[in-house]
Write a structure and sequence with these properties.
Number of helices of chain A: 11
Largest sheet of chain B: 8 strands, mixed
Distance between the termini of chain A: 54 Å
Largest sheet of chain A: 2 strands, antiparallel
Distance between the termini of chain B: 76 Å
Strand content of chain A: under 5%
Helix content of chain B: 40-55%
Shape of chain A: globular
Number of strands of chain B: 14
Oligomer: heterodimer
Structural class of chain A: mainly alpha
Order of helices and strands of chain B: HEHEHHHEEHEHHEHEHEHEHHHEHEEEEH
Radius of gyration of chain B: 24 Å
CATH architecture of the largest domain in chain B: 3-Layer(aba) Sandwich
CATH superfamily of the largest domain in chain B: Response regulator
């Protein structure tokens, strides 16, 4: 039984790590209805910028601040150069644009900062602790705590601030929001900037876990099932979706993988996602679109 | 004739003379290049695996430059090369091969280095049709050791089967002999891909022979989340873990092992889990990690002193990061270049001193004899293992050294080269090659030629 609980807890904590990446997707989707394919590249870019600055001997917090500034500049550039000319175009066009942005960010990051693998030490102890006979990773607990703080902060931002409420208005109806004087361009820059901040947090934690290297972009492979399960518009959904995918993958790998004679976690979360699509297309916490006919 | 017309005629004459001169120069350049030996390099300098590839090409190119600059080429035949980016993708690798296989400026392709296990497998049959040997050091199809069935595939030096067997033999060395393997649990945590599964058959065979328990645990690509796999390790409590990763899978495995409290000095990384790029991202918990490799790290080999003096110190190196000089990947590039150059040298001794084509290079490879004496002349003693190839044996070596990470660098901890049980495994390899021949309708060559 303790093995089952340990596997479950390990999976849940791994799921929170995925949630950190997914929150970035949700932010952009909430504000613009666009599935931002470039989120993985932004995670890589943030981690690579930070670690390059640290390698040059720059202080931790200063490096974090400069990286955040770089991510905000990227957000402004993406809005100015890519999104603004595509306002009111079909969503698939915007999606394809973010696909292009993704490759540009990856390519430029590699040209400017090189392709080397970097170690990233955040000073978080990574030895296991025992809680009630179950081994838990201290690093994963810190990551879970960070995700919790992010969720609370972003919920306050979206529900209690004028900018947050304006962003929700844009997501609901961009034309109506524009007609009452909400500045779409500025708000898109803000939301992409916040997504850049989330990328920095996710990049640092994932980078500390696996090293800063181009494979960081691959963490988004698990983003889609998490989004489908949690809902594209809910930050809480991102967390819950991450927990379901993490626990599901972990348990399936142990109990189903040995039966089938191979690893199953590559596709198991997608099976879960398809099951959710059939039962609850908007996800657990997503808002089902209501259209006037 | 007006002055203007005279000017036109003079300028036309000058133009024609310039054209004739440039054509003559062009011809002489082409003729000159036809006296060179062309090596196309399939590289991946961008993408997810670029960090692994960049030091490899540096080692390879530095050695080629050394041959040109110091030795004046291979018996006077200078080497030329160019790169073709594959991104480590099969389609691009095959496209690259098709683009370069005809040679360059009259110089044929003697050897193609695919630099990617899936690419090498995709090219197996094409290389036979085109008569261009594929040299795949420490990767590629293991049964291609049987050159009677695979005449143009050369998994030279250290196949995956030898890797698995050497790792088991190192464990035997540590526990006090092969008889002590009985009852041990050895878990293989592998990349869930054809590459990762390649060692399942030999390990099952070795487990049956020596009586240890063989546990196989797959990790799905890319391997950035392994909590379930290492929870299983914690549950099964193996004595040793053999880690066969690629890319990000290795540092994540080392870190996750630490999380579940598995001792890192009982994890033996395979060839592609044993570079500085694999272990550095794991940080402090990587200290004590072991890896088996045919490319021992270090910059104190004699050839490195020569490379430093004639290439690096003269600013001719392809290496951008001097820290990588003598790294596992850099040395793998040097090893690969040594094998290629020596195969050409062997072929030249038989066919004459001139650019060698693929068919001749195949002969050169099958008669390659890198003895201790020859390795000493090159300055590669200890870096490269002695190697003797034949039509029946496209591997030749079959031994690896075990390295241990001390937090800064690798140190050799095995007693020299750890040999694999080739005598035990070769009959199985020949059986598999024969099965492939039956499936593809291939009549095996006569090995006495």
């Amino acid at each position: 039984m303790s093995f089952f609980i340990e596997t479950l807890v390990g999976g849940l904590l791994a799921g929170v790590m995925y949630s950190l990446v997914v929150i970035g997707f949700v932010l952009v989707f909430k504000a613009s209805g666009v599935f931002n394919f470039a989120q993985g590249s932004m995670v890589l870019c943030a981690a690579l910028t930070f670690v390059t600055l640290r390698d040059k001997g720059i202080d931790f917090w200063l490096a974090a601040l400069i990286t955040l500034a770089v991510m905000v500049l990227i957000a402004i550039a993406v809005e100015r150069v890519v999104l603004r000319p595509l306002v009111n175009r079909p969503q698939i066009t915007l999606f394809m644009a973010t696909l292009g942005v993704s490759f540009v960010i990856e390519g430029l990051a590699q040209i400017v900062m090189g392709a080397s693998v970097h170690e990233l030490d955040l000073g978080i102890v990574d030895t296991p602790i025992e809680i009630g006979g179950v081994q838990v990773s201290q690093f994963d607990l810190v990551a879970a705590g960070t995700a919790g703080i992010l969720v609370v902060a972003l919920s306050i931002f979206f529900n209690r601030t004028r900018v947050g409420i304006a962003l929700r208005a844009i997501a609901d109806d961009p034309q109506a929001a524009l007609s009452i004087g909400i500045r779409l361009q500025t708000l898109w820059q803000i939301v992409w900037g916040v997504a850049g901040f989330v990328s920095l947090v996710a990049g640092l934690l994932w980078g500390a876990r696996q090293g800063v290297q181009f494979a960081l972009t691959l963490v988004v492979l698990k983003a889609l099932p998490v989004l489908i399960i949690g809902g594209f518009t809910s930050i809480t959904g991102a967390i819950v979706g991450g927990l379901i995918v993490g626990a599901g993958d972990s348990l399936a790998e142990i109990y189903l993988g040995s039966l089938l004679g191979g690893s199953v976690s590559t596709w198991f979360s997608y099976v879960l996602a398809v099951a959710f699509l059939l039962v609850r297309p908007a996800g657990l916490f997503g808002e089902a679109p209501i259209e006037r006919i | 004739m007006s002055l203007w017309n005279q000017k036109r005629i003079v300028s036309k004459a000058i133009g024609l003379a310039a054209l004739a001169l440039s054509a003559a120069v062009g011809t002489s350049v082409s003729a000159d290049e036809a006296k060179t030996q062309y090596f196309p390099l399939a590289t991946f300098r961008v993408g997810a695996y670029a960090s692994s590839g960049i030091p490899v090409w540096a080692g390879e190119i530095d050695y080629f430059r050394y041959i040109n600059e110091v030795e004046g080429g291979i018996n006077g035949i200078k080497l030329v090369w160019d790169e073709c980016e594959t991104n480590w993708e099969v389609e691009k690798g095959v496209e690259c091969y098709e683009r370069v296989k005809a040679g360059k400026n009259g110089s044929p392709v003697p050897i193609f280095l695919p630099h990617g296990d899936p690419i090498s497998k995709a090219l197996t049959e094409k290389s036979v049709a085109d008569k261009i040997p594929l040299v795949t050091i420490a990767y590629g199809r293991t049964e291609a050791i049987d050159g009677r069935v695979f005449p143009y595939s050369f998994p030279v030096v250290f196949s995956f089967w030898s890797e698995a067997s050497s790792a088991v033999n190192f464990i035997a060395e540590k526990v006090g002999g092969k008889d002590k393997l009985k009852g041990l649990k050895i878990a293989t945590v592998y990349h869930d891909s054809p590459y990762g599964k390649e060692t399942q058959v030999p390990l099952a065979h070795l487990a049956k022979t020596y009586g240890f328990e063989d546990i196989q645990i797959p990790v799905p690509h890319p391997g950035n989340e392994q909590s379930a796999q290492w929870a299983k390790i914690r549950q099964l409590k193996p004595d040793w873990v053999f880690l066969r990763g690629w890319g990000v899978m290795t540092p994540v495995a080392i870190k996750t092992a630490a999380k579940v409290g598995f001792p890192v000095d009982h994890i033996i990384g395979g060839i592609w889990s044993g570079s500085e790029e694999d272990v550095r991202p794991a940080g402090a918990v990587g200290k004590g990690y072991l890896a088996i490799t045919p490319f021992p790290a270090g910059a104190n080999f004699e050839i490195h002193q020569k490379l430093k003096k004639y290439i690096l110190d003269k600013g001719l190196s392809d290496l951008k990061d001097p820290k990588s000089f003598g790294s596992v990947y850099y040395n793998s590039g040097v090893d690969e270049a040594i094998v290629a150059v020596e195969a050409i040298r062997t072929a030249q001794a038989h066919f004459g001193v001139r650019p060698i084509n693929g068919e001749e290079a195949q002969w050169g490879l099958e008669h390659l004899d890198l003895s201790e004496k020859r390795l000493a002349e090159i300055g590669a003693t200890g870096l490269q293992q002695p190697l003797k190839l034949s039509a029946k044996d496209h591997e030749g070596g079959g031994a690896g050294k075990v390295l241990q990470w001390d937090g800064e660098k690798w140190n050799v901890v095995s007693n020299g080269w750890v040999k694999s049980d080739r005598d035990l495994l070769l009959p199985l390899i020949y059986e598999r090659a024969a099965a492939y021949a039956r499936e593809k309708g291939i009549t095996p060559r006569d090995a006495t030629n």
